[in-house]
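Morning!

This is the sequence you dropped in the shared folder:
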Amino acid sequence: MVDLDQEDTAPTTLNMSAKKKELMSTAMKRTSEWIFSQEIPSDVTVQVAGVSVSLHKFPLVSKCGYIRKVVSESNDADVSVIVIPDAPGGAESFELAAKFCYGINFEINTENIAALRCVAEYLEMTEDYAVGSLVERTEAFLNEVALQSLAGAISVLHASENLLPIAEEVKLVGRCIDAIAYLACKESGNDIAISSTISNSKTVVDWWAEDLAVLRIDIFQRVLIAMIARGFKPYALGPVLMLYAQKALRGLEIFGKGRKKIEPRQEHEKRVVLETIVSLLPKEKNAMSVSFLTVLLRAAIYLETTIACRLDLEKRMALQLGQAVLDDLLIPAYSFTGDTLFDVDTVQRIMMNYLEYETDGSHFGYKEEDGYISPPLSDMERVGKLMESYLAEIASDRNLPVSKFIGLAELIPEQSRITEDGMYRAIDIYLKAHPTITDLERKKVCSLMDCQKLSREACAHAAQNDRLPVQTVVQVLYYEQQRLRDVMNGSMSSGTSPSISSRVNLYPPTDIHPVSDELSSLKRENEDLKLELVKMKMRLKEIERPSSAVPSAASSPMGIIVPSSDKPPLPRKSFMNSVSKKLGRLYPFGVPPSGAKARTRPSKDRRHSIS
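The structure's back. Tokens below.
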């Protein structure tokens, strides 16, 4: 039997057992005293579960086939001691059976009916030996009272767990399960009422779901399977599984760093419970909350369940990733090896599953009218922002290698990133926490963001960020200045130029101003950027070698350094020196050639190049 809290309750259980045994001895003693009060001397002593009681052969033999066989088959003509080694329910149930033989009244209820039915079968108290036998009486109570209500059927089934295998032999377990399945479906009502449980299931099933939570996991599994076979909707079982999991996983420290050692037996029991619960989870989308799936996944990693169990939970989380929050992804790395603080590999697999669903529409068997509908952009945007927040959270971990950071960042879809501010923030945090990485690694990390999609605030910060490579800073300033020129030129030529509209949508300001105010603001920002470029020019001059060869600006046909139409000028020492000579007379970075298109995001190969 799965006893999840046995370690903590062992002393209490022993005390209760000793007290119960003492009470039973007292009860059996009272029965013996009642018998002696009839002034008929006892002629046999019955020993049951360490308790002895003096009785009479005649009433026992007349209604109990087991004792009749013992007396008739004994070599001793005058049997004085009868030992019943394995009576179901122990001395307590035998006392009730003995009272039945003597005709003493006692109460039959849902608490004792299971043990009474099993001991009646064990002692062969059937119609073959007496009319109105104990078997007949207990069967009548089961059919007419105990199995007519959910609470009664669950109570009898719970008591039957300690009476195996005889409870199975008399079909008590199976009948209880069938009764629970039938009554649960009846209680839940028709399909319309069941469908409403997807949003408000607590009001429908809570009162009996808590009762089911006391069952052993294998019995609990059989009950749910029987309910589904009876027509109960699988997704409506979500609250039942949640209540059972909360009870079963109580005591696991799954929210801290490292694994707290628990007893191997208890760990095995919890592992079996968790794997069974995962196998019973509904396949329907949104049947379980992401937060609950996260708790199960943390527990699965903590308890080292099967790989199939963990992968199943990861796929379920991926299907509902758009509903997750940052805390759902911050899964601790349960290890003592000094590795990363969080389980980055698990989150990376979840994100890969999400992208797979978005690409091929497999969606874990979930389809709408047998067709696939691509996730709305808003869902993609939520996932993109979520992953950028996750990157920023794990970036401060000094044990996080560059490869893992880059691998996870590359999974974030470009269409989910309206701006690159979130990615820039994560990159900046990572560079600050890892000052010792090589220049090549620094360039690879910075190549993850598209400088064209940074907001004005992010551009202003990046222009003064000493942690960024010089090439990245130059690209940031180039694209920002190009954007400002386009907006200014568009506003001067036509007050509502399409280019202005598109830029405003791409880089939304915090407030909406008239075009004249916007133009004035842009001019001020343009002057600020020129000042920053002058500062950068001075900084670059300081790091250049005096002996380096500097090509003349006359090498250009027009005597002007013209940026390429397909990529911005990159900072090489001689090239930047020539650029600095012209910055005082020209717009920053010169005038782009007519017809040049805005630079698109470099390909992956380009982003990882070192030039």
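Headline: Residues 6-37 form the longest helix (32 residues).

More detail when I'm at my desk.
O.
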